């Protein structure tokens, strides 16, 4: 396993796109959060903003780059036929997928931690000036939102890796993951059937997973913060399983 | 056949013989239509009368076909031919119920578009034509007619120290509005036409006190009842039957379950002074006439992701397989190869987008009406306009992905960037709970500006409402949004063509 892991690391390390994708995850996530907190202001009607969720809003765009990184880790090899060489060198395909999962998980964990800390710093610096309380990591729910957001990004990376292992073509995989992530929140945002809305938000990977960012109005969440993250984890596990099964049974 | 014609034909043959690209295009149409219908069929509108659920009332429709609010207190007499009404407005006061911050008391005050003045109206039916000259709380004297037309007079609020004289004169079918500070020197405000026997008289009304939350998506709009009271004296009427009584109508008043009027207006008359109270508005129903085109077109967002993938694969498959070398050998003018690909992909995706919108808008609209929404029907010309512009939006997105694919040579990068600049900004606006200002900047600066094609209801400067992207109002007009998209497409295709000419394949 450690040899396979080392091989996967070498491949990803020498992939030029990965070099700018990783810093981009951090920069884009923090930048979006900065813009969002800078634009947030309380109207005379009062303030309904959740300071933690507002500060962590960049995760919603940062996850798209995590998807690209994860898809790149396997789709790129399919595209060039390198995967055949990989499987010749390491015949246990599941181990290869596991090594990729460890690598993507680890890289996303690192980039996600930096990004989330940047988001919280952005919220702390700017929100009080707009009349909204600053998020503090000493506060239990805010810490949970921050740690949960990092885990959210890791799980999104694993979900994308599983889908890419199943679909193989990188452009199609990325499109499929984007559609899977964004279609349900989009539909849930516009329908006015509250029951169906809650059901969709409980079951779909992105809205359920992002419940972990909420720190206010917790009683009205469609799903609890950790339970929501568990739903996303189930999606990621299912995608990886599907990817592993197809990888095992199909010619690369 | 010309060289370029052959090139186009070759590209078209490539596109139509790759099953994945054709299926992808069809899937984009299906996703758009099916998601739109799913959303429409899961949106319901119901209204309560007391504790009983009833069918929602259909809002009255103005002379130009738009849904309107037509509710005011009206003191009037019939006028068959020429004539005039002159009044002096000496005060305007009002009440606002339970405003922020504490929502716990009724306070004196006027909302900015509270109105009091003189009016000639084609009967007392809601939605009928009218011409009115009025003092407003914060927008000075205005002459308005038929709900959507508004002309400004002089600014300034009415008070005992600064009263306003208003005069509405009819000669033939033409009504002229004049205002004066002293009743001696008059200034023309505007003219409008209204034929036949009209009801002429005094009116007072006041829109609700609105709170427009800074957020969209999770944001809410609250409306609190506001009432205005105005004092009129020096009432002069010519052209009506001499000595006739004033008629009183609470136009548009809604009955309570027990039959009594809900928040009635009224008039008191003493010694030639008339004090009139009313609430409501004479205005188009801006921002609240039910779900708009963007609800039934919501599936387009996911359809666009599919189109982006097809476009990126269409151009990067050849570069990856080295087939592009053969293509360029057969047709050495490389810029033309890219142009031919763009024409074929643009045409196919334009047809796909137009078809999807032309299907889902009327179908979704029908479903919404069956589910109790009482928004007005969309004219065929509006459906056609939005459908064609949807085609342009889809084609523009496809060409952007094509340009990115040709420039970057990697399908994944093209998909990532195209989704990030076209789809994600719009998603952030719809589901992100972004502050309105942030949403509007996203819809000005990114290619997602082209989503402005979905706006079908105009913004009215004289009606306060929640004009946010979330409720279907965009910062740029449709052509402006498409122009922003076209700029990005030109940039991507230009860079791609420059790279194609310069580099080895």
Concise description?
Helix content of chain A is 77%, strand content 0%. Chain A is mostly helical. Chain B is α+β, with helices and mostly antiparallel strands.
Account of the protein in words:
The complex is a heterodimer of chains A (252) and B (505). Chain A is mainly alpha-helical and 252 residues long. Helices cover 77% and strands 0% of the residues of chain A. Chain A is built from 11 helices and no strands. Chain B is an alpha+beta fold and 505 residues long. The two termini of chain B are 27 Å apart. The longest helix of chain B is centred in the C-terminal third of the chain and has 37 residues, at 334-370. Helix content of chain B is 38%, strand content 26%. Chain B is elongated, with a radius of gyration of 29 Å. At the A-B interface, helix 2, helix 4 and helix 8 of A face helix 2, helix 4, helix 8 and helix 9 of B.
How large is the count of helical segments of chain B?
10
The major beta sheet of chain A can be summarized as:
none
SSE string of chain B, helices as H and strands as E: HHEEEEEEEEEEEEEEEEEEEEHHHHHHHH
Rg of chain A, rounded, reads: 19 Å
Mean pLDDT over all positions of chain B: 88
Radius of gyration of chain B, in angstroms, nearest whole number: 29 Å
Distance between the termini of chain A: 20 Å
- Tell me, briefly, the overall form of chain A: globular
Oligomeric state, counting identical vs distinct chains: heterodimer
């Amino acid at each position: 396993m450690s040899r396979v892991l080392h091989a996967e690391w070498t491949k990803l390390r020498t992939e030029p796109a990965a070099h700018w994708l990783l810093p981009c995850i951090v920069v884009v996530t923090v930048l979006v959060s900065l813009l969002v907190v800078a634009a947030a202001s309380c109207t005379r009607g009062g303030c309904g903003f959740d300071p933690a969720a507002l500060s962590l809003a960049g995760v919603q765009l940062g996850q798209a780059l995590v998807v690209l990184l994860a898809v790149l880790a396997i789709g790129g090899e399919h595209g060039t036929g390198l995967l055949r060489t990989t499987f010749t060198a390491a015949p246990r395909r599941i181990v290869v997928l596991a090594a990729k999962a460890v690598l993507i998980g680890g890289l996303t964990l690192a980039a996600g931690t930096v990004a989330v800390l940047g988001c919280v710093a952005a919220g702390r610096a700017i929100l009080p000036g707009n009349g909204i309380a600053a998020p503090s990591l000493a506060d239990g729910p805010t810490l949970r939102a921050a740690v949960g957001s990092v885990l959210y990004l890791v799980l999104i990376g694993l979900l994308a890796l599983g889908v890419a292992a199943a679909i193989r073509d990188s452009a199609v995989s990325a499109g499929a993951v984007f559609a899977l992530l964004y279609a349900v929140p989009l539909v849930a945002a516009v329908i006015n059937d509250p029951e169906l809305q809650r059901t969709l938000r409980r079951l779909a990977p992105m809205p359920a997973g992002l419940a972990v960012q909420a720190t206010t109005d917790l009683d009205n969440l469609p799903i609890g913060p950790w339970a929501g993250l568990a739903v996303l984890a189930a999606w990621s596990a299912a995608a990886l399983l599907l990817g592993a099964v197809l990888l095992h049974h199909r010619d690369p | 056949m010309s060289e370029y014609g052959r090139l186009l034909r070759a590209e078209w043959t490539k596109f139509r013989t790759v099953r994945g690209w054709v299926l992808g295009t069809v899937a984009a149409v299906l996703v758009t239509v099916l998601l739109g219908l799913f959303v429409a069929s899961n949106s319901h509108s119901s209204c309560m009368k007391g504790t009983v659920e009833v069918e929602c009332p259909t809002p009255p429709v103005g002379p130009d076909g738009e849904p309107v609010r037509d509710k005011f207190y009206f003191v009037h007499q019939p006028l068959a031919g020429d004539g005039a009404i002159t009044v002096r407005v000496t005060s305007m006061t009002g009440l606002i119920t339970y405003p922020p911050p504490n929502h716990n008391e009724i306070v004196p005050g006027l909302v900015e578009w509270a109105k009091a003045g003189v009016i000639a109206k084609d009967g007392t039916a809601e939605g009928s034509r009218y011409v009115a000259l009025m003092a407003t709380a914060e927008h000075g004297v205005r002459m308005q007619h038929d709900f959507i037309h508004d002309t400004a007079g002089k600014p300034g609020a009415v008070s005992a120290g600064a009263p306003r004289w208003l005069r509405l004169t009819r000669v033939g079918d033409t009504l002229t509005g004049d205002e004066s500070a002293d009743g001696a020197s008059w200034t023309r405000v505007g003219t409008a036409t209204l034929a036949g026997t009209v009801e002429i008289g005094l009116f007072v009304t006041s829109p609700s006190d609105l709170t427009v939350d800074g957020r969209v998506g999770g944001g809410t709009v609250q409306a609190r009842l506001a009432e205005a009271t105005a004092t009129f004296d020096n009432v002069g009427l010519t052209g009506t039957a001499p000595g006739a009584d004033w008629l009183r109508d609470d136009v548009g008043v809604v009955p309570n379950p027990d039959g009594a009027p809900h928040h009635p207006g009224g008039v008191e008359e003493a010694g030639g002074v008339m004090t009139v109270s009313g609430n409501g508005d004479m205005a188009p129903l801006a921002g609240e006439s039910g779900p708009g085109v963007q609800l039934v077109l919501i599936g387009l967002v996911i359809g666009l992701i599919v189109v982006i993938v097809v476009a990126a694969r269409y151009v990067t498959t050849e570069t990856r397989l080295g087939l592009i070398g053969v293509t360029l050998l057969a047709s050495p003018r490389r810029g033309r190869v890219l142009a031919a690909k763009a024409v074929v992909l643009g045409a196919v995706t334009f047809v796909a987008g137009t078809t999807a919108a032309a299907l889902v808008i009327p179908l979704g609209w029908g479903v919404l009406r069956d589910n109790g929404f009482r928004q007005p029907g969309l004219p065929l010309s509006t459906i056609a306009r939005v459908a064609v512009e949807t085609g342009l939006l889809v084609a523009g997105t496809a060409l952007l992905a094509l340009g990115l694919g040709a420039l970057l040579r990697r399908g994944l990068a093209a998909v990532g960037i195209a989704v990030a600049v076209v789809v994600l900004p719009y998603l952030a606006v719809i589901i992100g709970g972004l502050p309105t200002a942030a949403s509007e900047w996203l819809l000005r600066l990114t290619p997602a500006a082209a989503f402005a094609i979905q706006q079908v209801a105009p913004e009215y400067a004289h009606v306060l409402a929640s004009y946010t992207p979330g409720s279907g109002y965009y910062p740029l007009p449709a052509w402006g949004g498409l122009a922003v998209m076209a700029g990005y497409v030109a940039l991507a295709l230009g860079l791609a063509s420059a790279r194609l000419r310069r580099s080895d394949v």
